Amino acid sequence: MIHWKFGTAALLSAALAGGSVVFLAAKPLFAQETVKLELWSRQDPSGPLRPGNVVKAAERLNKELEAEGSPKRVEVVVRESPAKGFDDDALQLLKVFGVGEGPDMFIAAHEWICAFQEDGFALKLDDYIAKYPQHFGTIFPSLWSSAKCPDGTYAIPQDAEARMFFYNKKLLREAGYDAAFVDSMPERTLSGDLTMDEVLDIAKKVVDKTKAQYGVLHRPNKGPDYIMVFNAYGNEFVDPQSGKLLLERDKLAAAFGWFERGVKNGVIPANNTAMEFDALRKEFYSGNAAFWMYGIWDLGSVAFPTYGLPQDERAFFADWGWIAGPAPKKGGSPVSLTHPIVYVIAADTKEPELTVRLLGHASAADLNTDHAVTTTHLGIKPEQLEDPRYAKAWPLARATELLKITKFLPNNAQFGDLNGIIYAGMQGIESGRLSAQQAADFVIEEASSTLEDVIVK
Asked: Can you give the residue range of the structural domain that contains 384?
């Protein structure tokens, strides 16, 4: 319904004409227009506030629009996908866009954004990000790297993670390392003094001097965590100019060499890739392994509730700790690995400005902290460190410093397939079927024959 309000001139005319006056106001009032914005989100119990915060953001945007005198009001419609993982979800959504049925915005794993950009389905955001510093200006600079394609920025970071080497201080002390050595490991790693091979040496001493059976354990299936080792040895896996996959034979062989030395020294078990995930966790958290290469979320989801590791910060760090991925040589650069989930806006949305503003509000520090503390993910803004809830979730607060040195999976849709090939190379090494150089050659040969546009150096 359209309501009209009359000014004093109209009232005077009506009075002179002998007419009756209904009401008085100073300016016209326009019809309210509801703008429906569709959000595609997979059904993800591990991150319900990824879409939920966008719904909440609509309330904030609508108050802002009302204050501006705009007749527009935003309504978010969530379209849920039953996909089991982000790869399947992205493939489904690409098909939906292909038949012209795509949403206004969607949630994705960051490595898929360039696939949407290449097909013309993603909106370039650089100008919008610069226009709204109140929403995007304090997002950790490192996280924007995960949102870029070769020609610009196509996503907004929604959360982050941190991957590291957890270690058992009790075992290290039992193996003969003094408390000063054990407690200095994180700082030495960040300064480039502790190296990847020193981790193997420490793990070897633990296996030799204690009853612990294992030195270093890693995930038993394809995933991002062990890519941190490849990053440490200089593998970036993507050509920054073209966005194509990049394989460098010497750097691949160097990373595979670390796993090879670990197995030969009895530090990494030869059957690591054949073990069950829960069995690996149990070995580490029950005190049967020196190091566990995984992610910060494992503390809140498994270590504390299942294995009884102390939730008090001081008690935890008395006997447990973590380090970043060390440099391969002294004086080199340490690494961590994160895997941001991102918000992406469709290139053909009818309301790009409103959609950007909506996702800007969804990126507010308080809403992002709601998500972070309930799912053990890292926040996207430094001001979240000042939130008492975030500070109370000390694993998040302590791990946030790793975002300064973090690396990302390449924003290339084929990396999932390449990662499967890399993992097969690791299996070959740990089972004794391949040497480090043979594993590097295998990855290059297999990727070159099965994937498109792979650059080999």
From this structure: 33-157+339-407
What backbone phi and psi angles, to 5 degrees, belong to 224?
A: -80, -25
Q: Is residue 10 in a domain? A: no
Residue 382 lies in a domain: yes
CA distance 255 to 271: 19
Residues 87, 169, single domain; the answer is no
Q: Residue 54 — φ and ψ, nearest 5°?
A: -70, -40
Beta strands in 53-171 (DSSP E): 72-81, 105-109, 148-149, 152-153, 156-157, 163-168
How are beta strands 156-157 and 341-345 bridged, if at all? antiparallel
Q: Which amino acid is at 124?
A: K
List the CATH number of the domain containing 55.
3.40.190.10
Is residue 292 within 8 A of residue 280, CB to CB? The reply is yes
Q: Which residue has the tokens 């982000």?
A: 86
Q: How many domains does the chain have?
A: 2
Coil, strand or helix: which one is 321? strand
Kindly give the confidence (pLDDT) of every residue in the chain, 457 residues in length, as a single tens digit, with 9 standing for 90 and above.
233 333 333 323 333 333 333 333 334 456 799 999 999 999 988 899 999 999 999 999 999 999 999 999 999 999 999 999 999 999 999 999 999 999 999 999 999 999 999 999 999 999 999 999 999 999 999 999 999 999 999 999 999 999 999 999 999 999 999 999 999 999 999 999 999 999 999 999 999 999 999 999 999 999 999 999 999 999 999 999 999 999 999 999 999 999 999 999 999 999 999 999 999 999 999 999 999 999 999 999 899 999 999 999 999 999 999 999 999 999 999 999 999 999 999 999 999 999 999 999 999 999 999 999 999 899 999 999 999 999 999 999 999 999 999 999 999 999 999 999 999 999 999 999 999 999 999 999 999 999 999 999 9
Assigned domain for 11 exists: no
Give me the helices (H) in 19-85, please.
Answer: 49-68
Let me know whether 275 and 295 are in one domain: yes
Look up the pTM and report it: 0.89
Q: How far apart are CA 85 and CA 68, in angstroms?
A: 40
